[in-house]
Specification:
This is 25S rRNA adenine-N(1) methyltransferase. The protein is of the alpha/beta class. The chain has two domains: 59 residues; 217 residues, Vaccinia Virus protein VP39 (Rossmann fold, 3-Layer(aba) Sandwich). Helices cover 36% and strands 15% of the residues. The strands form two sheets. Strands 5-4-3-6-7-9-8 form a seven-stranded mixed sheet, with helices on both faces. The chain has a two-stranded antiparallel ribbon with strand order 1-2. Helix 4 runs antiparallel to helix 6.
Length: 361
């Protein structure tokens, strides 16, 4: 093409109206369908060959994703209030076991089928940490004093290094403990009910030892896709209260939930969840909704509200309509942690059925 600054450009353009350079008229090369199919087949074979040789999980990512979706579909059916046939429930439970149950679901998640259980949610948190400058040791004198670079002999400017202490983070439900592995300035302690790596400690959140000194406490507790997997509705509220015990003053709690837990639940919405957080001793600092998840970064309140106001939050309908889910967080301060409740969605459905039956009596 002619340069637009050239005085002859206009004349050249007029001299060849409607014509294109030869290289633009050259036909594009076409690959045969069989060649394309062969390439895809070869790529698929390579992916399968490089996949982990673990008989408990599918070999490639596409099959891993299909497994996770099948698992979620079964859980949704089990949680449906319309499921009253014992035989149908038995078949669904058998199908879940045939797929491998929670263990296989977690392993598929670790190997990439479900990004939200790996590093995707950690990226949002790390972004907030940097923007909020959490962990930066900046005192008032440094804030008021203008920062100047050091100029070397060759004229190069060298800016003083930003001092950042290593953040301590407790990652609950970490599975393989890889979410924060790429951030050397974060010291992560990972726990999970069914660990998928040697460095992940096998603990229930309520049984993990509470720090006894300030040095042992954490800057952040991460509950990424954990509360929604807790089968006890009361324990979900206990998690919000129990997290205080692990944090430094002004420490942060990071919560990730499936978006429908707030947008399509009969009993929970963004506003109600925000009120529950406020009541359990948290100030909302940042929140964000993606296509599938909702992210919340909250900070411990100071003073008398540090551990909440003691209010009880029961199941109360905030929206009606067909097709809603039953996700709810019940808060009962001062009560004991419940044990032995395994299935979160089934617990939601069964309590909804029980309360509906009680209302009809």
């Amino acid at each position: 093409m002619p340069h637009t600054n050239s005085q002859y450009a206009k004349d050249r353009k007029v001299s060849r109206p409607g014509k294109k350079p030869a290289f633009l008229n050259k036909a594009k090369s076409k690959k045969s369908k069989s060649s394309t199919t062969a390439s895809l087949s070869s790529a698929k074979s390579a992916a399968v060959d490089s996949a982990p040789l673990d008989p408990s999980i599918p070999a490639n990512r596409q099959e891993q994703t299909a497994l996770i979706r099948a698992f979620h579909a079964i859980e949704k059916k089990l949680a449906s209030p319309g499921l009253t046939d014992p035989e149908e429930r038995k078949k669904l439970l058998e199908e879940r076991e045939r797929l491998g149950g929670l263990k296989t679901y977690q392993e598929a998640s670790v190997h990439g089928g479900d990004k939200s259980r790996g590093g995707e949610s950690s990226k949002w948190l790390v972004k907030q940490i940097k923007e909020l400058k959490i962990g930066l040791d900046v005192n008032k004198e440094k804030e008021t004093k203008k920062v100047e670079p050091m100029i070397l002999e060759d004229g190069t400017k060298v800016w003083p290094k930003v001092e950042r202490r290593k953040l301590r983070l407790l990652d609950v439900g970490a599975i393989a403990g890889t979410a924060y592995a790429g951030y050397p300035w974060i010291s992560t302690t990972s726990i999970d009910l069914n660990p998928q790596a040697p460095h992940v400690l096998k603990y229930n959140f309520f049984d993990f030892p509470v720090p006894q000194t300030e040095e042992e406490k954490f800057d952040i507790v991460a509950l990424s896709l954990v509360i929604n997997f807790e089968g006890s509705l009361v324990n979900r509220g206990h998690m919000l209260l129990h997290a205080h015990d692990y944090l430094l003053p002004n420490g942060y709690l990071y919560i990730v939930l499936p978006l429908p837990c707030l947008t399509n639940s009969r009993y929970l919405s963004h506003d109600r969840f925000s009120s529950i957080l406020d009541s359990t001793g948290w100030d909302v600092v940042r929140k964000h909704d993606s296509a599938k998840l909702t992210y919340w970064l909250v900070r411990r309140k100071e003073g008398d509200g540090a551990k909440g106001d003691g209010k009880v939050w029961k199941r109360e309908e905030v929206r009606s309509g067909i097709g809603r889910n039953n996700f709810v967080i019940v808060v009962k301060p001062g009560t004991e942690v419940e044990r032995g409740v395994a299935n979160a969605e089934q617990a939601d459905a069964e309590q909804a059925d029980a309360e509906e039956a009680k209302e009809q009596e």
